Amino acid sequence: GFKMGIVGLPNVGKSTLFNALTRTAAAQAANFPFCTIEPNVGEVAVPDARLDKLAEIAQSKSIIPTRMTFVDIAGLVKGASKGEGLGNQFLANIREVDAIAHVLRCFEDGDVTHVEGRVDPVADAETIETELMLADIESIEKRLQNIVRKVRGGDKEAVQQERLMRAALAVLEEGKPARVVEVDDDDLRAWKMLQLLTTKPVLYVCNVGESEAAEGNALSARVGEMAAAEGNMHVIISAQIEEEISQLEPEEAQMFLDEMGLSEAGLDRLIRAGYELLHLETYFTVGPKEARAWTIRQGTSAPKAAGVIHGDFEKGFIRAETIAYDDFVGLGGEQPAKEAGKMRAEGKSYVVKDGDVLHFLFNT
Ligand code: GDP
């Protein structure tokens, strides 16, 4: 599954957000309620109205949404890259996630201490990014000597690694994140192997006050400008409201949202933004027993998509009987779609599309 790390300075609302994410009534009602893997790791059901629609048509007994994992990575402070405040452990946690949700304090509250003594989300973002850049510089410098030795010894792969490390180092030393480096397709694998923290995609989460959740405020607007300039995404959320919503039953939650002038829970927006950020999409398997959603990266071939369900499905892949979501719903289910000629037999080279309803045929 895909993992999103929640980072940010202390007291910005990370834990509040994490708790809201993992304790929502919706997450609880899902077939696999959020399971705590560790106290700071939770799996969240990805809300998708299409899945409910498919299950209704196929009269599926159970509905199983796809999941996203969130990790609450506390403890990032100024100096973390030097190992202060158990910094190295936190940096190791960040290394393992696919993307970073960077929570920024955009609420004013005299009762909640700010570590730097002032509320300035743009400066906070820079503080954290600087720590991540310093950590990347340090990790590259540590490895570079060894790589240079290998290059002298005639190691071909090391030549590529050294070139990529130096490219990363050059931008990092200019104070820019490694993600600004343009990487050729041929280098992508080796680039990923460097496991740099500042190559992870970032989503800024502006934690605003309760009355500002719909429109945001001047601070979140500044974050929005910064994000746009960097080519990153941002969402506006009130972690406190989300925590309150997470304790309500779904109907009550909807009423509460309406009262606040919000069209949907911030958590749903956060999860969808995470999907967009990671270029993820969903396909479905639908039958009388269960309707289930599965997550893949955009551009995934049918056998690889089958492999998400089980490795044997990928190995023995023959074909995928495919019905587009709109056809399945528009025509009223699998049988009518089939009769209307809308079920396609797709082979190994087929690239799965978001919303496809798939049935895999495979050799065992
Ligand atoms: P963390 O250290 O980043 O995990 O921050 P917490 O989630 O523990 O929040 C720190 C404090 O800020 C707690 O007392 C929260 O209740 C409070 N807090 C979090 N979000 C908000 C918010 O949107 N508005 C206000 N006023 N307080 C908040």
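^ guanosine-5'-diphosphate complex. The first helix runs from residue 14 to 23. The pocket of guanosine-5'-diphosphate is lined by residues 8, 10-16, 74, 107, 109, 112, 207, 209, 238-240 (CB under 6 Å).
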